[in-house]
Amino acid sequence: MSDKPVARPRIADACICCGGQSLEKSPAILMPFVAHRVFGWAPVEIDDSWGLRTIRNGNAYSICNSVSCLDCGMLFLDIRFSDPEMEALYSGYRQAEYTALRDHYEPGYAERNDTLNQGIGFIPEIEAFLTPFLPLPVRVLDWGGDTGINTPFKSASTLFHVYDISGKPGIAGAVMVDRDTARRTAYDLIVCSNVLEHIPYPLDTLSDIRGLMSRDTVLYIEVPHEEVVRRNPEGTVLCALKRHWHEHVNFFGLEALRRLLAAAGMDAVAVRELGSEPDSVHPHQLMLACRLA
Ligand SMILES: [Zn+2]
């Protein structure tokens, strides 16, 4: 499982979840904030002064394709960012420079960001979901956990490690660790929450995490249950319904996640669709507790 498949193309030519090659594509745009931060490509207005004979005047944005996998239902952006591009996008995540550029393209973002930086409100829901599978207190690693602000079981942990590429300092009690430290440490719980939707090749991330797990380790995966996925029956080809891409480059359904887990040598032992209950105040998220298969 640790052997990574060789090809990691810039433009995905197979499903990034199940590897399937029955794909359908539909044109979309890469949102200006992401195009600018990753590639340095700002949108432009083409007018007569450009002197282009075969191009019409108008706004030019970075184009891309939305891709649907006909095997597992996965919906994803065809562009797959490289490590340096991921670094460009996520270094200093939601800090001053990031926020200023994003607010330029998406007015009102700075205000929303203040709320995001205060953390999520459903950590008790996550802890209740995971408690049946864990010995408490736990040794926890939050993989891609930002500052540790959203890590479950913070106050019921004997070890609180966070691995993240944003380079930010951790909150009180969090120990920011590198991969080598994580490899040398035994964990009861590894958290991979709101990470996989950002990652070019999620199987690589799960393979890395798999190398840190023992038979007793629980992996908690959480991804957004995006509206276009949620509102359409499984089996619907979604690519033509998705016209723009931002930081979330992968839109998962449960079947796609199950195939991804199987490819990584893991099984889901529990699944919850947060936000799906009537009158729920929570955002729509897919929550999975996983173990080695
Ligand atoms: Zn697939």
Q: How would you characterize the overall build of this protein?
A:
With 293 residues, the chain is of the alpha/beta class. It has a single domain (23-292), classed as Rossmann fold (3-Layer(aba) Sandwich). The chain is 24% helix and 25% strand. The chain is built from 9 helices and 14 strands. It has helices at residues 32-39, 83-90, 96-105, 109-116, 123-130, 179-183, 202-210, 227-230, 254-263; strands at residues 23-30, 44-46, 58-60, 62-69, 75-77, 138-143, 157-163, 175-176, 189-193, 218-224, 244-245, 250-251, 266-274, 285-292. A 7-stranded mixed sheet has the order 8-7-6-9-10-14-13, with helices on both faces. A hairpin with a 5-residue loop joins strand 4 and strand 5 (75-77). The protein is globular and about 70 Å long. The mean pLDDT is 94. Zinc ion binds at residues 15, 17-18, 20, 69, 71-72, 74, 256.
Give the strand content.
15-25%
Shape field: globular
The helix/strand class is alpha/beta
Q: Number of DSSP helices? A: 9
Task: Report how far the terminal alpha carbons are from each other.
Answer: 12 Å
Query: Helix proportion of residues, in percent?
Result: 10-25%
Q: What is the name of the CATH superfamily? A: Vaccinia Virus protein VP39
Low-confidence stretches: none
* Number of discrete domains: 1
For the CA atoms, what is the radius of gyration? 20 Å
Mean of residue pLDDT values: 94
SSE order? EHEEEEHHHHEEEHEHEHEEHEE
Question: Which ligands accompany this protein?
Answer: zinc ion
As for the CATH topology, it is Rossmann fold
Largest sheet: 7 strands, mixed
Strand arrangement, major sheet: 8-7-6-9-10-14-13
CATH top-level class: Alpha Beta
